[in-house]
Design a protein that fits this description.
5-stranded antiparallel sheet; alpha+beta
């Protein structure tokens, strides 16, 4: 096998692709049984290498701040931050940066402008300078180069009292701390930190800033070789069960015939062929495959191959997924809101009661008790639509694989004779029931504070809780998930189950008879929106759930038929929950269903599954994510697609669907272009800088959280400053500030729980 790609293909790819970062791995020779090393290696034309960014070094005299003199009025690059009463607007005026401050607030960073695009190398010397003036003479400000997260401590700080005339301010400093690939450059323009402006009128003043520079003056002591944690041989870092298919994915342009599997002592236990290549347009690399399914002996191993180096270690054994699965499930308990988490059940993540004050209904003086539920993500908001998806995933997981869920998951309800997963879901349902208006049956979209909190523990977010307005999507997804709950709890607690069903019917009736719209954040609420103007999918889902319980074909079938047109919604995300409707319809008593509708719904599943099979066969990392799929929460899409494959298998059994779902599990645990096991605490390379406030506040990462993963849209300043030249599939970095890549959510964990319960032998 010595395939050479033509130069014509190479040139066409060169024209069409952008760059992806990455460093070449050291050579780790294959030790063959005859102890003979490969001596001749051919290479494919490396059309990607010329596009990859070169080493980012500290060039002497180079200003790393873009548009420093604000000559380009269309390219501000600075972002405002406001809190504690601060209010300001940004613009470029006369080639100067103008911050027009309506109110300086109560603290220095109540008005902050920041820039994320600097890199500070350890032991390098820098000069930090800028020009500034203020219409409020003597106004004290802070100019900081600081850590972007954690305690936000400064590497360098200038604290001038500004005059009405433009003055230059400068400081020389040495970066003594470890290299920071994305610190924050910011100006704090609110109330002075030294207390000298206490009681002063800090309203309606303007600050002008110009000629901002951060330039290296001495790089003689800098060590530029940064550690590259990615691998050119990627495997499932948890490992494989003995009878599982085992495929290693190699990346690079070397044409190598073979690889070896070595044990902990370096002994070769297997050699196999490397097949390929596959041109990977999402990662801008060549991929190759090596099948080592024949290795079945329990133990710990690595894959090695000339030019590709070695893989992270992995295990072959029967119980390799148990710990990760337990942590993925236990994460929901740690996300509980409105109750005390004890050290017995939460360890270091224990905390007292949080968010237990009444919430004010937006635009009124009325309050409601909406305590309880799960914190949705890395912040402490609680949202109905994502909650409904999460509830559905977990209940369906229990239904499909009850043996995977015990009554001993270390939560307060453990040992009560009810599977802990049902206890945990009930905790969320009890909160959701509080989100329904008791008079009308409509459902409030979310409960949050007006702004996101800092990196604090949940009990330390003490701002006013606000119930955002009702939405059509929240009302119907509430109706669907509460109706669904009836089926699972009617034999456990008939009274609770009936409460859920009554609430579902009331919400459905409200949705049918009130013209409420999709949700948009009110102007003064800046927390997660979960905006969704299309309620067709939620309405379809609620109709199917209520039909399955009531058998009222006359009421619900016309709505099902109507919601199928012009196209059948069939997603598994919070914004498109149509696939839950399809699953329920195909699962219910056939006496309630229409054969033509069943046929169409089944086709939706099998058509998607076949498309996922085809996409996985064509993609080097053997999953169904297209180039355009590397968006916010791409790892949820990977888990959702695996879940969809298993839905299809449930109604049209096909072992290929199951094997393809397992390939998606492999991707999430390490078989991906950035070599990360994306579940915290599990794998050789796993995220430690999650955007999860309890983890940040405690300085340790909670295990068992699926992070969002690669997102080529780079929707936070940290990602934009560090990954602007990366290929779509490589747009991932492990940092707390990279919230568009490294946040966590309950509804990213839940589909992974479903898939692992069905295919990972976690019973």
């Amino acid at each position: 096998m010595k395939r050479i790609i033509s130069m014509l293909l190479a040139m066409s790819m060169l024209v069409s692709l952008a760059a992806c970062g990455g460093n070449e791995e050291p050579v780790v020779p294959v030790v063959t049984e005859s102890d003979t090393a490969v001596t001749e290696i051919e290479y494919l034309p490396d059309v990607f290498e010329v596009l990859r960014p070169k080493e980012d070094f500290a060039a002497i005299g180079e200003n790393v701040v873009k548009n420093p003199g604000f000559d380009d009025a269309s390219n501000l690059l600075w972002t405002p931050y406001e809190e504690s009463g601060g209010s300001a607007e940004l613009s470029i005026s006369g080639n100067q940066f103008l911050v027009n401050i309506a109110d300086g607030g109560k603290v220095s960073h109540a008005v902050q402008v920041y820039y994320d695009g600097v890199k500070l190398h350890q032991y390098a010397k820098y000069t930090f300078s800028f020009d500034a003036r203020c219409t409020l003479p003597g106004k004290k400000i802070e100019a900081r180069l600081q850590v972007n997260g954690g305690d936000y401590h400064a590497y360098a700080i200038i604290e001038p009292a500004l005059t009405e005339e433009m003055q230059t301010y400068t400081i020389d400093f040495t970066m003594e701390e470890k290299t920071d690939i994305a610190p924050r450059l910011c100006f704090n323009l609110g109330r002075a930190v030294d207390g000298s402006e206490e009681g002063a009128d800090l309203t309606n003043y303007r600050v002008y800033i110009d000629n901002i520079s951060v330039a290296c003056t001495d790089n003689s002591k800098v060590e530029f070789e940064a550690e590259d944690l990615s691998k050119n041989i990627n495997i499932n870092q948890l490992g494989y069960t003995p009878d599982a298919e085992k495929i290693a994915v190699f990346r690079g342009n070397a044409v190598i015939d073979s690889f070896a599997v070595v044990d902990e002592d370096g002994n070769v236990v297997y050699t196999g062929d490397i097949t390929g290549p596959i041109e990977n347009y999402s990662a801008f690399e060549y991929n190759w495959h090596g099948d080592f399914s024949a290795v079945t002996e329990p133990g710990t191993y690595r894959i090695v191959a000339d030019e590709f180096g070695d893989s992270y270690p992995f295990t072959i054994g029967e119980d390799i997924y148990n710990d990760a699965f337990a942590d993925l499930v236990h994460m929901f308990y740690i996300q509980r809101c409105g109750c005390e988490l004890t050290a017995e059940h939460a360890g270091d993540f224990a905390h007292p009661v949080c968010h237990n004050t009444p919430a004010r209904i937006y635009g009124t003086d009325k309050t409601m008790d909406v305590s309880g539920g799960w914190h949705d993500a890395g912040d402490y908001g609680r949202y109905v639509d994502p909650a409904a998806k999460t509830i559905a995933d977990l209940l369906l997981a229990y239904s499909a694989a009850p043996e995977a869920f015990g009554d001993d998951c270390n939560i307060p309800e453990s040992g009560n004779g009810i599977p802990d997963i049902l206890d945990e879901v009930r905790y969320e349902l009890e909160w959701m029931l509080k989100m329904q208006d008791p008079e009308t049956g409509g459902v409030y979209h979310k409960v949050t504070c007006a702004n996101f909190p800092g990196n604090v523990m949940p009990q330390d977010e003490t701002e006013e809780l606000i119930l955002s307005p009702m939405s059509r999507t929240a009302t119907y997804s509430f109706a669907a998930s509460c109706a669904m709950a009836y089926r699972y709890y009617k034999d456990i607690d008939a009274e609770f189950a009936q409460t859920c069903l009554d609430a579902a019917l009331k919400a459905y009736d409200f949705g049918m008879n009130n013209n409420i719209l999709g949700f948009k954040n009110p102007e003064d609420i800046l927390t997660g929106e979960y905006g969704d103007g299309v309620s067709n999918d939620e309405h379809l889902w609620a109709s199917c759930e209520l039909l399955s319980i009531t058998g009222d074909v006359e009421t619900y079938e016309p709505q099902i038929t109507k919601r199928m047109k012009p196209a059948i919604p069939g997603g598994l995300g919070w914004a498109d929950m149509g696939a839950y409707a399809l699953h329920t319809y195909l699962s219910m008593d056939e006496a309630y269903t229409n054969p033509e509708i069943r046929e169409q719904f089944l086709y939706c599943f099998t058509a998607k599954a076949e498309n996922y099979l085809k996409a996985s066969d064509e993609y080097g990392y053997r999953i169904s994510l297209p180039n355009s799929g590397y968006i916010w929460g791409s790892n949820m899409t990977v888990a959702n697609n695996a879940m969809m494959l298993l839905f299809a298998n449930e109604f049209a059994p096909n072992e290929e669907y199951v094997e393809c779902a397992k390939q998606h599990i492999d991707y999430l645990f390490g078989v991906n272009p950035v070599s990360y096991s994306f579940v915290t605490g599990h794998g050789a390379l796993t995220p430690n800088g999650t955007h999860h406030r309890p983890s940040i506040a405690l300085g340790q990462t909670l295990p068992g959280m699926l992070v969002g993963g690669p997102n080529c849209n780079l929707e936070d300043p940290f990602a934009l400053s560090t990954l602007s030249t990366a290929a779509p599939a490589c747009c991932y970095i492990d940092n707390t500030a990279a919230y568009s890549l490294n946040e966590i959510t309950i509804y990213w964990n839940s589909p992974l729980v479903y898939v692992m319960a069905l295919v990972c032998d976690v019973a």
